[in-house]
Write a structure and sequence with these properties.
This protein has 733 residues and is α+β, with helices and mostly antiparallel strands. It is built from 23 helices and 14 strands.
Length: 733
């Protein structure tokens, strides 16, 4: 064998030698030219396609926008109309009429690089395309040009095809028209909320003046609302609106369009309340329902610009017959009463969370009292009782209900209403007689922060619109929570009691069941509110059992001997007057809260100058409404025995600083704990009754009541009551 070795790379005829032949080189050249030619052909075809689309696509003008797609809001039966939303309120103006500071406010809010960008955002379109492919959140137009194209010309679905058309149109508009012309079109077509399309209509709607007269502050308010007119409305979401307003003003400073000292000097301007218009508002009580519907739709991707242009069909949870009965019950009860009285009624189906009836006031364009924070008085005691039940303290447990009593976190003694007392009452008897001393002490025994935690779990909102926590003062929750001195909303009370009615399962209240397009295609559907375990079934059973005698004690029993669980509540203004009165109660199929008060902390009295208690006018409204709605419905028995028999041998001793003068904030140092799930317990021996919808009518509600209304001032935070709220089964004569 030769000393020279051969191998794969050196032997004659290997791939290297073959590849070097002229024939191989020629074939490689042909293949390369073919591939490059194919790529070039595809590129030419793509460019040709883009060119054809570019050449044949017309640039939309403001007058091209369709205005005939009116959306309809229905009651729960899906056929009875509640409102129609959609006709445009728009007046076009020349850009020269729009003050420069207003234009700059819009740019600061929506597109600060408008005068230098090419009319589209490449990163925004890429992000939107990626999200469409991967199933991520939808993205809208990033630039003012893109927003104009989207609103004026293109369908709203988020697809790659629509994004491609948006890109083509944006480029074409930017190349064929000046930035000033594009901005003028945009300002005349963009939706500002409250039915106002365009900057001129917005100026008149929010400030009652032409666009020429808008100030820097007012222009910033309008610009702030463009991103989401419903969620940044200054009347319904003041905190969010002002936060966005600050963002706009800060942007003006950053861009050098507003001097920092001027920025520091501006204050948020006065915005007109929502007023009656030909469309897009409902003047009667149902107008407040429409407000809640629009906000819920906005949270689910249907902003007002879609509602007012796409011809949507929205089915609500509100039953036409139940709503009619709510309006009648309020009108008949308060029709001849003093005009300073205000009321709210919220009725919820416990099994789903659906809002069946909703009355926040007689004017659909006024203040919504169903969302107002007011002291619930003794109607809050069931949450204290439920907390005790979770800790093994049964409703047959006995506690001291004598009066007056001093407590370490309060500088004044606690008394019971009308001098009632019981030195050794069961908790069931104490809540029926509404003994304040019993429940103030019980709240301290089980932990005030635990009462707050349970109330949040079953339906009481945790934060106000300004993000401050409810059920506390200055970060502290004290024994006063046991007798209802911390403010809640009527809708919270209806939701919390509905959780007890539903065996301890909480369903988040909601107003919208379905949304379709005008051709019937389903765009959104919801069958029930979000479900969480608020309290155990045993706790819910025993709370219901404890509340069964309240209505009977106050002569507020429902017709046909229908069993109901209920609790009244009254908050004092001072030693001589009351300011808030409540009746909250339920049957297995329906939970209803009724509140009566005033716009401010002032006395509430009847036309006979008698004090109003929860067992008075609120109970009358509640009873009238519930009897009407439940007429003919099957009678369902409530629990006839308690399931939790345990008890502590003795309540823990009270801590005192020696002088009995310590304040609530000084004595209670722990903040409320983070909301947690209810303790797991063994299932009850008897299941709660099956819930079915009451056979209520579905005819269209009548017109709103004719009682005059006054625009209420901003709801003040009332001071702590100097005495516990008086609650009684029978009001004093």
């Amino acid at each position: 064998m030769s000393d020279e070795q051969t191998g794969p790379d050196t032997a004659p005829g290997t791939w290297r030698e073959r590849r070097a032949t002229p024939e191989a080189k020629r074939k490689r050249t042909i293949r390369r030219r073919f591939v490059l030619g194919g790529i070039g052909l595809v590129a030419v075809m793509a460019l040709t396609f883009v060119g054809v689309v570019y050449a044949t696509t017309d640039v939309p003008r403001p007058g091209d926008i369709a205005t005939d797609q009116v959306s309809i809001v229905y009651y729960s039966n899906g056929t009875t109309e509640m409102a129609r939303l959609g006709e445009e309120n728009r007046t076009d103006v020349a850009l020269s009429r729009v003050p420069e500071h207003v234009r700059r406010a819009v740019l600061a809010a929506e597109n600060r690089s408008f005068y230098s960008d090419p009319g589209f955002s490449a990163t925004g379109i890429a992000r939107a395309a990626w999200n469409n492919v991967t199933g991520g959140p939808t993205q809208g137009g990033s630039t003012i040009t893109q927003q104009y194209v989207k609103n004026a010309y293109l369908p709203t679905e988020q697809t790659l095809t629509r994004k491609f058309k948006e890109l083509i149109l944006s480029v074409k508009i930017d190349q064929n028209y000046s930035k000033d012309q594009i901005l003028e079109w945009y300002l005349n077509t963009i939706y500002f909320g409250r039915g106002a399309h365009g900057i001129e209509a917005a100026a008149e709607t929010y400030f009652g003046k032409p666009v020429d007269d808008l100030t820097v502050e007012e222009g910033a308010v309008l610009a702030a609302g463009i991103a989401s007119p419903a969620l940044f409305d200054p009347e319904t979401h003041p905190e969010d609106a002002q936060e966005r307003w600050n963002f706009v003003l800060d942007g003006l400073v950053e861009e050098g369009w507003l001097e920092a000292p001027e920025r520091e000097a501006v204050v948020y301007p006065t915005v007109l309340p929502r007023g009656p218009v030909s469309l897009n508002q409902t003047d009667g009580p149902e107008g407040l329902i429409i407000r809640q519907v629009q906000e819920e739709l906005a949270r689910n991707g249907f902003d007002e610009s879609r509602i007012y242009s796409e011809g949507l069909r929205v089915t609500t949870t509100v039953n036409a017959g139940a709503q009619r009965e709510a309006v009648v019950a309020v009108g008949d009860t308060l029709g001849e009463q003093p005009e300073n009285l205000r009321t709210a009624l919220v009725s919820i189906a416990p099994s789903t969370g659906a809002v069946v009836a909703y009355y926040g006031g007689p004017s659909g364009t006024g203040f919504d009292y169903a969302q107002a924070y007011r002291q619930p008085g003794s109607s809050f005691k069931p949450y204290t009782l439920a907390t005790a039940l979770e800790q093994g303290i049964g409703v047959s447990s006995r506690r001291d209900g004598s009066q007056p009593q001093n407590f370490p976190d309060r500088d004044q003694p606690v008394r019971n209403s009308e001098g009632g007392e019981c030195s050794n009452c069961s908790l069931k008897e104490a809540i029926t007689r509404s003994l304040n001393t019993t429940f103030y002490g019980l709240a301290l025994e089980v932990g005030p922060e635990n009462v707050a935690d349970l109330a949040h779990r079953v339906g009481v909102r945790e934060t106000r619109p300004d993000d401050s926590r409810t059920l506390e003062r200055s970060g502290v929750t004290g024994g006063a929570i046991g007798i209802g001195e911390y403010e809640v909303r009527p809708i919270d009370q209806a939701s919390g009691f509905a959780t007890f009615a539903n065996g301890g399962v909480h369903r988040e209240p909601f107003f919208v069941t379905a949304v379709t397009d005008r051709n019937g295609n389903v765009l959104y559907e919801r069958s029930a509110g979000e479900e969480t375990r608020g309290v155990s079934a045993e706790v819910a059973n025993d709370v219901t059992f404890a509340l069964e005698d309240v209505a009977a004690a106050g002569d507020d029993e429902l017709a046909d001997d229908r069993e109901a669980a209920a609790k009244t509540g009254t908050a004092q203004l001072d030693d001589n007057d009351n300011k808030d009165a409540w009746m909250v109660g339920y049957v297995p199929t329906l939970a209803t809260a009724v509140w009566i008060g005033s716009d401010a902390s002032e006395p509430i009295r009847t036309n006979e100058d008698r004090l109003i208690y929860g067992s008075g006018l609120p109970s009358q409204i509640w009873n009238t409404y519930m009897n009407a709605v439940l007429a003919g419905a099957p009678l369902v028995e409530l629990p006839d025995e308690a399931l939790i028999d345990g008890d502590r041998a003795d309540p823990p001793p009270r801590e005192d600083d020696g002088n009995g003068e310590s304040t609530e904030a000084e004595q209670t140092t722990s903040a409320p704990t983070t909301t947690t799930a209810a303790p797991t317990t063994t299932a009850p021996t008897s299941a709660p009754p099956t819930t079915t919808e009451p056979p209520i009518t579905t005819s269209e509600p009548p017109a709103s009541t004719t009682r005059p209304t006054r625009p209420p001032p901003t709801t003040p935070t009332p001071p702590p009551t100097t005495e516990p709220p008086p609650t009684s089964a029978t009001p004093s004569p």
